[in-house]
Amino acid sequence: MLFNVLAKDKAPSTFTMPNVVDMQLDVGTQVLTDAGLRVNPIIQETPDKPEGVIVATDPLADATVQTDQLVNVYYNPTKTPFAVPDVTTLAQQDAVDQLNGLGLEVTILTEESTTVEAGKVIRTDPPAGTMLRQGDPITLVVAAAPGQVAVPPVEGLSQANAEAALTAPTYAFVVTVVEEPSATVAKGTAIRTDPPTGELVDKGTPVTLYVSSGPEQVVVPPLVGTTEDTARTKLADANLGVEVSYLTLSAGDPNIGKVVSQNIPAGQLVDPNTVVKIQVGKAPATTTTSSSTTTSTTSTTSTTVASSTTTT
User: Fold this and answer.
1) DSSP 8-state assignment for residue 286
2) How many domains does the chain have?
3) Helices (H), 9-65
4) Is residue 245 situated within a structural domain?
5) Which of 34, 93, 223, 248 has the fewest CB atoms in 10 Å of its CB?
6) Per the domain annotation, does 137 fall within a domain?
7) Quick check: helix, strand or coil at residue 13?
8) pLDDT in tens, 115-161
9) DSSP state, residue 170
10) Are residues 230 and 194 part of one domain?
């Protein structure tokens, strides 16, 4: 897995994912890193696209993303080999950005050095000048002060595996787990760390591990007393589903055409797309005979599930 170091003030904590599809990989990578995101380039052979262009991203463009979030960038590879650039003495972030833009899969190792400034590149493996193709792996060896290590990448790991990686003897980090909602990362999965992946820190440093609690919950709106159309609109606006049943009421009842009950109380927090069941009052059926008209007041209840068409 690859990673880079990000300045914490590059972008707001949440923002809209930029659209980099159809950009050249190096250009799109620069756009994303400038926005405060980390890039994981993944080859996706796409014959109908030019070589070297981005064909898709995950998350998609316009999705809500967070600073330091890892973005999978799928690109149509260039088949021509190229020489590994010389990134020695560059700052770690600059080197990783450059190698990411070439489509190389970067792994970072730290090495104590008394001659190279901490956080700068000592060498690459394979070395500069080696001919590689997009998608090939490369190791970036970065100078660290005595006792320093780089925070390892744990994004996408389960909470247990992420904690195990961070507390391994190599790092011995003191880990605090914080849950936060995410619409794109599965519940119980590591989102990021603070300090971020790749940052040089002392062994045993406190590290906060952010783990997804799943999509942010929404509040069930008050529906009783509203019309069916109003209730449907409120639920749709809250990103909730609806199941409607109809209760026959007495003629003249003021609740005819209105919601008389909801199965989840107003104000309760639920997951997005939860189905809320409502009952709507309806007038009794009217039957006509040759001599008189009578009103039936049955207690039969009919049920419909909300869809693009409404059945009554």
Assistant:
1) E
2) 3
3) 25-34
4) yes
5) 34
6) yes
7) coil
8) 899 999 999 999 999 999 988 999 999 999 888 899 988 988 999 99
9) T
10) no
Structure tokens at 37: 């995101």
Burial 80-95 (b: 16+ CB within 10 A, else e): eeeebeebbebebbeb
Q: Could you tell me where the beta strands, DSSP code E, fall in 118-249?
A: 121-125, 131-132, 137-144, 148-150, 174-180, 190-194, 200-202, 206-212, 218-219, 241-248
Residue 311 falls within a domain, yes or no?
A: no
- Residue 20, domain CATH: 3.30.10.20
Select from 86, 114, 146 the last residue of a domain: 146
- pTM of the predicted structure, to 2 decimals: 0.58
Residue-number span of the structural domain to which 252 is assigned: 218-305
Chain segment 205-250, per-residue pLDDT in tens:
999 999 999 888 899 999 999 999 999 999 999 999 999 999 999 9
Report how far residue 175's alpha carbon sits from residue 152's, in angstroms, rounded to the nearest whole number: 13
> Could you tell me which of 78, 88, 82, 90 has the C-alpha nearest to residue 129?
82
Q: Select from 108, 129, 146 the last residue of a domain.
A: 146
Report CA dihedral (114, 116, 118, 123) to the nearest 10 degrees.
-120
241 token code pair? 């589903």
